[in-house]
């Protein structure tokens, strides 16, 4: 049997299709995914790229968050991945997938896990603006 939780901080591009496929479970009638991508603007400024960096404990924290999510009622599989390094507009920065018995459980757990990752994961980003300057965001 496959692991109920898989997570990680990745330096290479995230394979969204493979991550979603890994969450499949015959007990589950719903698989909900969230893919956070680098957008081309923030706070009225044009963004061309983002450099993500993470605290050394980030993989442990992400695993704990994902393990907490898999204990939600009806949830059987959780995937939670965050990318670090240099990402261009359109690239996937975060992928969260939840497989649950029913859609309401899958949607609620996915949303709660994404919120937890955004709040608690020690990942920071330096946004490269169109003019070549950099702006740090996400500092906690």
TrEMBL record:
Domain of life: Bacteria
Listed InterPro entries: MoaE_sf, Mopterin_biosynth_MoaE
GO aspect biological process, one term: Mo-molybdopterin cofactor biosynthetic process
Gene3D superfamilies: Molybdopterin biosynthesis MoaE subunit
Record protein name field: Molybdopterin synthase catalytic subunit
Provenance organism: Propionibacterium cyclohexanicum
């Amino acid at each position: 049997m496959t692991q109920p939780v898989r997570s990680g901080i990745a330096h290479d591009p995230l394979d969204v299709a493979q991550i979603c496929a890994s969450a499949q479970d015959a007990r589950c009638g719903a698989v909900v995914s969230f893919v956070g991508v680098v957008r081309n603007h923030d706070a009225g400024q044009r963004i061309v790229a983002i450099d993500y960096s993470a605290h050394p404990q980030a993989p442990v924290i992400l695993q704990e968050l994902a393990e907490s999510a898999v204990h939600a009622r009806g949830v059987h599989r959780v995937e939670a991945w965050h990318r670090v390094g240099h990402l261009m507009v359109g690239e996937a920065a975060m992928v969260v997938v939840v497989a649950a018995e029913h859609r309401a459980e899958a949607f609620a757990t996915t949303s709660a896990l994404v919120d937890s990752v955004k709040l608690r994961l020690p990942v920071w980003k330096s946004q490269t603006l169109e003019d070549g300057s950099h702006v740090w965001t996400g500092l906690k």
